[in-house]
TrEMBL record:
<keyword id="KW-0378">Hydrolase</keyword>
<dbReference type="GO" id="GO:0071555">
    <property type="term" value="P:cell wall organization"/>
</dbReference>
<dbReference type="InterPro" id="IPR016455">
    <property type="entry name" value="XTH"/>
</dbReference>
<keyword id="KW-1015">Disulfide bond</keyword>
<dbReference type="InterPro" id="IPR013320">
    <property type="entry name" value="ConA-like_dom_sf"/>
</dbReference>
<keyword id="KW-0732">Signal</keyword>
<dbReference type="InterPro" id="IPR010713">
    <property type="entry name" value="XET_C"/>
</dbReference>
<dbReference type="GO" id="GO:0004553">
    <property type="term" value="F:hydrolase activity, hydrolyzing O-glycosyl compounds"/>
</dbReference>
<feature type="glycosylation site" description="N-linked (GlcNAc...) asparagine">
    <location>
        <position position="109"/>
    </location>
</feature>
<keyword id="KW-0961">Cell wall biogenesis/degradation</keyword>
<feature type="signal peptide">
    <location>
        <begin position="1"/>
        <end position="24"/>
    </location>
</feature>
<dbReference type="GO" id="GO:0048046">
    <property type="term" value="C:apoplast"/>
</dbReference>
<keyword id="KW-0134">Cell wall</keyword>
<feature type="active site" description="Proton donor">
    <location>
        <position position="105"/>
    </location>
</feature>
<dbReference type="Pfam" id="PF00722">
    <property type="entry name" value="Glyco_hydro_16"/>
</dbReference>
<comment type="similarity">
    <text>Belongs to the glycosyl hydrolase 16 family.</text>
</comment>
<dbReference type="GO" id="GO:0042546">
    <property type="term" value="P:cell wall biogenesis"/>
</dbReference>
Length: 289
């Protein structure tokens, strides 16, 4: 064997490996910056996306693809320092007046005061299912992974792999569940100082602008919807689950315990315990879990 072919054999897997990693998180390939007149940017060879906000405008992006079920991960590093009044929204949404939506929203705060992670689930145009959390780390110091697992039976919100919220399919008791409308991924950074920080008490300090949030390591194990068809061969669990464990994923007892730890220690609002807000009675799904 010649020495040159030997070297080539060693090198090949390395080259292939590098190409795959690079394409796995290429924002140009998966997203369009949709508004903000240059305030949204794709940088570092497509590996990082940044959104910014100043007094004149915020900015936003959306996925090129629409998805109908998936496990979707994104790493975010939120606006540091005095981010009071700013909101970074990261969500899945379908279109139309009876849309479905799965939301993460990050409400900024004064330096050193905690962000609020706000979550909601809309089905067929109806939301009002807010749960809010503090985080167990500073979300502005580093990137952290925010994930949505969405399959026909449940939606699980996770932070760094730790489940923080589960919304189950409860169609059996008449609660609509998002399962027929494909959704796109959206994100935006905007000014919401009329409500975001301490209920609107703390305003955005524009001397700190521009405010910037960063994104990286997007990954979607998902069924892509195009021209009325799913990239997953069939929506039946048996055929999809061969390649896609997420399609039939449930919360095992370890996940339940980790979820409970978050809910006990970090949940600051739960619509299901807000009896005052629902004088006619809590929404039906609240009596199920
Ligand atoms: C901001 O900090 C205050 C004071 O600690 C806290 O009450 C509030 O929940 C924090 N977050 C937001 C978004 O208002």
């Amino acid at each position: 064997m010649s020495s040159s072919s030997f070297n080539f054999t060693l090198l090949m897997p390395l080259l292939v490996g590098c190409l795959m990693v690079a394409s796995a998180s290429h924002f140009n390939q998966d997203f369009d910056i949709t508004w903000g007149d240059g305030r949204g940017k794709i940088v570092n060879n497509g590996e990082v996306l940044t959104l910014s906000l100043d007094k004149a405008s915020g900015s936003g992006f959306q996925s090129k693809n629409e998805y109908l079920f998936g496990k979707i991960d994104m790493q975010l590093k939120l606006v540091p320092g005095n981010s009071a009044g700013t909101v970074t929204a990261y969500y899945l949404s379908s279109k139309g007046s009876t849309w479905d939506e799965i939301d993460f929203e990050f409400l900024g705060n004064l330096s050193g005061d905690p962000y609020i992670l706000h979550t909601n689930v809309f089905s067929q145009g109806k939301g009002n299912r807010e749960q809010q959390f503090y985080l167990w780390f500073d979300p502005t110091a580093d990137f952290h992974t925010y994930s949505i697992l969405w399959n026909p039976q449940r939606i699980i919100f996770s932070v760094d792999g730790r489940p923080i919220r589960e919304f189950k399919n409860m169609e059996s008791i008449g609660v609509p569940f998002p399962k027929n409308q494909p959704m796109r991924i959206y994100s935006s950074l905007w000014n919401a100082d009329d409500w975001a920080t301490r209920g609107g008490l703390v305003k955005t300090d524009w001397t700190q602008a521009p405010f910037t949030a960063s994104y990286r390591n997007f990954n979607a194990d998902a069924c892509v919807w195009s021209n009325g068809a799913s990239s997953c061969k069939s929506n039946t669990p048996s055929s999809a689950s061969a390649n896609n464990a997420w399609f039939s994923q449930e919360m095992d007892s370890t996940s339940q315990q980790r979820l409970q730890w978050v809910q006990k220690n970090y949940m600051i609002y739960n619509y299901c315990t807000d009896a005052k807000r629902f004088p006619q009675g809590l929404p039906p799904e609240c009596n199920m879990s």
